[in-house]
What does this fold into?
Amino acid sequence: MKKILFATTNPYKLKYANNIINKHGWTAIPAKVQLIEPQEMPQREISIFKVKQAYNQSKKPIITMDSGVFIKALNGFPGVYSNPILKMLSNEWVFKLLKDVTNRTAYIQQTVSFYDGKKLKTYTSKSSGKIVHEEEAGTGPSIDGFFRTNNSKKIYGDMTEDEKAEAWGNCWVKLAQWLDKYL
It folds into this structure.
């Protein structure tokens, strides 16, 4: 199995990534790097900014991943702010924000980036769906408890890792396939 550094210490992100890329002969190894996460850029630009920082610290080929939930009724909020906002607010607050909203359309998006000091490669996956009503909520924090894709009857948190990968893991598949050709 080929190895690639992954700028994360988050065990869930590592497990999610490896569930996908292991099937393509790759293993993501956590890299402890200190990253500044800009918030006022589009997700793709944040991912690129972070992967270059990570490379500058590790001096080895490395990948990053950024994700978020974008809620139409809230003008795309929390979007790139998903991680800090959803850590501060419980799912109950998301339901309160959308209490009288009928159009609960949303999408989840993730962007993965690779950089080795020379070559930069970025892929993005997106899954459209909706924020469920509180009585339909599942267990789990963040999108696990309130997001349902258009292609499933399950709340995101109730999906298997393979179902989650199917919903929005295509960027990881593309990255693994590209890594095979490049490295």
The chain has a mean pLDDT of 94.
